[in-house]
Design brief:
Radius of gyration: 19 Å
Number of helices: 17
Strand content: under 5%
Length: 360
């Protein structure tokens, strides 16, 4: 989980740097910057959709290894990209590797912890946030010491390779219990409850990633903070999200998961609007960070609810859910950038509040 978070979270720290690097003195448009995040999550979604049915047939281990290796090679390709178009292609491959990993890790953990899936799933996804925090911290150090973003890509690239070597030594559990037949996705798609889960996780992904992809640029260009403080906001956002998933995972056996998610949605709406329109920069900055805690449980708890209801859904079921979650991650960063170009970035960020409102 920490390995897959590297590629997804590294480039947002350097959005304003990438704007000058590939757009010249005038920089790239907000829409072009938003396209970087959208392409990352397009690759992520493609990796998930391709891997789900194959993992049910061939097992999860080969794809866990493949996802790490592809992430490593794609980070190197990002560092060597000579043009904006090449960078987008490399970002798609980074997302593809991350998507393969995102696909296989959830069913593996669900199989390891069948009696406490909600807590286990929130804990698993908290390590995505911790990996993001570590990545952002490295990016902040790089900015402080005027280290180029390309060098940071090359420094982080070996980490997924090490994870692949370690994973190669481990046995992986079956993700469908022996003696039970897997529930086919086509049968699940006829169930209204499961379709609602797909819609919910898409909105959960949009809630999480609309803020995550734009927070540094918003803090720098609208709130007036420096690059280091802007990157620190994303670091604290990721830590708040990790803390939220750990706390909510521990409390999941005491409270209804749906009640928890409703509370997360309501608080997310309030924090998104306060972050967008507060006249006090420090208050807006704080609300951006707290939005990470508020929206933390939406994605993993939806996965856990589906796994509890359909324990024989297999990797394909997790793939469908993760693909829809990441589809929200494709649309929302691009939508924020498009609204920012039309009005301004405050209104662009406020657009993200629609996702948790609809999910509630």
């Amino acid at each position: 989980m920490m390995a897959l978070s590297i590629g997804i979270n590294l480039l947002p720290v350097f959005l304003t740097t990438l704007s000058v690097h590939f757009g010249g003195p005038s920089g790239l448009t907000h829409e072009a910057l938003g396209r970087i995040g959208a392409v990352l999550f397009a690759g992520l979604t493609a990796g998930i959709l391709l891997t789900g049915p194959l993992a049910d047939r061939f097992g999860t281990k080969p794809f866990a290894l493949m996802g790490n290796l592809l992430t490593c090679l794609s980070l190197v390709a990002c560092a060597l990209a000579p043009s904006y178009a090449t960078l987008l292609a490399a970002c798609f491959c980074v997302g593809l590797g991350a998507g393969i990993l995102d696909m296989v890790l959830s069913p593996v953990v669900a199989a390891l912890e069948p009696e406490r899936r909600s807590a286990a799933m929130n804990l698993l996804h908290s390590f995505y946030c911790l990996g993001a925090a570590a990545t952002i911290l490295i990016g902040m150090v790089a900015l402080a010491f005027h280290m180029s973003w390309t060098a940071v890509c090359l420094v982080l690239a070996p980490f997924p390779l090490v994870v692949a070597l370690l994973m190669g030594l481990l046995p992986f559990p079956p993700h469908v219990q022996e003696g039970h037949s897997r529930v086919r996705l086509r049968d699940l798609m006829r169930v209204r409850w499961f379709v609602l889960c797909l819609v919910a996780i898409a909105l959960g992904g949009a809630t999480e990633l609309g803020m995550a992809q734009w927070l540094p640029a918003y803090a720098e260009t609208i709130l007036g903070y420096g690059k280091g403080t802007a990157a620190l906001g994303l670091l604290l956002f990721s830590l708040a999200m990790a803390l939220g998933r750990i706390v909510i995972g521990l409390a999941s056996h005491r409270l209804s998961p749906v009640t928890l998610m409703f509370a997360c949605c309501a608080s997310s709406v309030v924090l998104f609007l306060a972050a967008s329109f507060s006249p006090l920069p420090w208050l807006a900055y704080t609300c951006c960070i707290l939005a990470g805690f508020a929206g933390s449980a939406l994605w993993p708890t939806t996965l856990a609810l589906a796994a509890d209801r359909y324990p024989q859904g297999g990797a394909t079921m997790f793939g469908a859910l993760a693909a829809l979650g990441n589809a929200g991650g494709i649309v929302m960063p691009w939508l924020v950038g498009s609204v920012a170009d039309t009005v301004n970035l405050r209104w662009g960020l406020a657009t993200s509040a629609v996702a948790p409102l609809l999910m509630a």
